[in-house]
Amino acid sequence: MFDSSDGGVRIELRELTKRYPGQSAPAVDAISLDVPAGELVVFVGPSGCGKTTTMKMVNRLIEPTSGGVSIGGEDVLRMRPDDLRRHVGYVIQQIGLFPHLTIAQNIAVVPKLLGWSKTKITDRVDELLGLVGLDAGQFRSRYPRQLSGGQQQRVGVARALAADPPVMLMDEPFGATDPITRERLQNEFLRLQRELRKTIIFVTHDFEEAIRLGDRIAVLREGSHIAQYDRPARILGAPADDYVAGFIGTASTLKRLALITVEDAFPADGDPAPAGLPEVDAGATLREALDAMVAHGTEEVAAVSGDTRHRLTYHDVCQAIHRDGQDQEVEPSGR
Ligand code: ADP
Ligand code: MG
């Protein structure tokens, strides 16, 4: 459908606008932006700012009120919507696997619509399961409810890739997982994208995720207004305004987790850790401590140093970041 022989297709949004009935302000207000061929562009912004609406206008799950979208130079509004959607991979916010279909059947939905042969479909399903790190023999015949959240999200990505579309739209695709699984999925996905070089619009409200994944980032405010659209390093180095700087602030708070050690965080007058808590080394970072808490579903860990075991709680971690943040409040502002 789209000519991607030159290595991917470009997406262009022109004054794209959506006005929902009965609302005074448009949900998406004349956004114009180019997504270069083969790049992953992240839309990041708070909940309700119009990310999903913008994305759904690209594959016409939502019809624009005005403005236009083109993919590979072709006007999307002139294509048949079902035709369009078969050529644009889509990973939705809530995973959205069909519960009554097996994993293989879920992945095969679009290839089947495209009339592929049975053998071609089977081969492709197995290839994709391998690609997203799931053993085909083990997972092919299972149902979605028999998979963990992270595994289901991998299947969601596999399904979107099934017919090898040049364009992918991904709406908070890793949102429903814990931080460790999310980071693993992000890393795997990055590795995949380095090979596949799809043109991707990726929506998230998580600025850290945007920095990690994006070739470019569009920081959006209410109405899908672009506060800044640039490469991650430029956004970090030269935020356009206080709004953008605010997002960076949230990310650097999290980065502090990797800089503070566990032994700097437990209170001097704290308790010895009771038996049975997950253990982390006193020299480990708070990031690792937090990971251990998440992995074990507890809000405390035992920080082990030689024979002593200190109790470190989630509250202690928050306190330590906050304390450390105030020490560092001399960071460049000048805005
Ligand atoms: P995001 O994905 O950034 O959280 P959305 O695009 O889902 O934001 O929503 C943008 C705005 O449009 C919100 O104020 C939301 O309440 C509104 N909205 C979304 N869908 C509809 C709808 N079907 N009808 C009316 N308003 C909607
Ligand atoms: Mg959304």
How helix-rich are the residues, as a percent range? Answer: 25-40%
Shape assignment: globular
Let me know the average pLDDT.
Answer: 87
Fraction of residues in β-strands = 15-25%
Characterize this entry briefly.
This protein is an alpha/beta fold and 335 residues long. It has helices at 51-58, 81-86, 103-107, 109-113, 118-131, 136-139, 149-161, 179-196, 207-213, 232-237, 242-256, 286-296, 314-327; strands at residues 11-18, 28-35, 40-44, 66-71, 74-75, 88-91, 167-171, 199-204, 216-221, 225-230, 279-281, 300-305, 308-313.
What would the keywords be for this entry?
single chain, 335 residues, alpha/beta, 6-stranded mixed beta sheet, 13 helices
Question: How would you summarize the topology of this molecule?
Answer:
Elements: E1 11-18, E2 28-35, E3 40-44, H1 51-58, E4 66-71, E5 74-75, H2 81-86, E6 88-91, H3 103-107, H4 109-113, H5 118-131, H6 136-139, H7 149-161, E7 167-171, H8 179-196, E8 199-204, H9 207-213, E9 216-221, E10 225-230, H10 232-237, H11 242-256, E11 279-281, H12 286-296, E12 300-305, E13 308-313, H13 314-327
Parallel strand pairs: 3-8, 3-9, 6-7, 7-8, 11-12
Antiparallel strand pairs: 1-2, 1-4, 4-5, 9-10, 12-13
Helix pairs in contact: 5-7
This protein binds adenosine-5'-diphosphate and magnesium ion.
